[in-house]
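Quick one - inputs below.
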Amino acid sequence: QSALTQPRSVSGSLGQSVTISCTGTSSDIGGYKYVSWYQQHPGKAPKLIIYDVSKWPSGVPDRFSGSKSGNTASLTISGLQAEDEADYYCCSYAGSYTVVFGGGTKLTVL
Amino acid sequence: EVQLVESGGNLVQPGGSLRLSCSASGFTFSDYAIHWVRQAPGKGLEHVSAISSNGGSAYYADSVKGRFTISRDNSKNTLYLQMSSLRAEDTAVYYCVKVGGWYFPYWGQGTLVIVSS
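Output:
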């Protein structure tokens, strides 16, 4: 199972919006409505921020939003804040009890 | 409160074996599949293994198939990962993760495995 494709890095200024893409195939992102996104700060465990493409776990601000079109999922962070600077990973169900992660995107807040 | 506490990580020589444990609390352990996800130093997340709620089904990534065995003891609320024939590329933080649906809302703090001579 190949990893999903994410940009290595993105950046945005405080208060602006950024979008992180995550490209897979019809066997993962395109085939299911089970895309999730995780935020990871250095030295910490990943934190779930979006699940089932566009749903928010309790406590996650709606500045984070998710979407999917075909084999590509996207995470948009609006109103960038300094604490949003972190690594972001997408993940998709890929059938047969498997999931596949993206390679990760480092977000820099300018 | 859901808690997952991994243990067993250590420095091991190539070709060696190690058993990781994950002690769970705060939920009905026997109702949920549990997964292992690892992260090599400075690298991304990799799904390693998963086991169904009753232990009857297991999944392994190709990179560990035949070398790792996942198991669980629902009477002890504990998940295990038996790792053998360890390689340098198995060096990583290993996270125990509880599923929601096909997503991971709960992660342990991780346990570090270093494979090196």
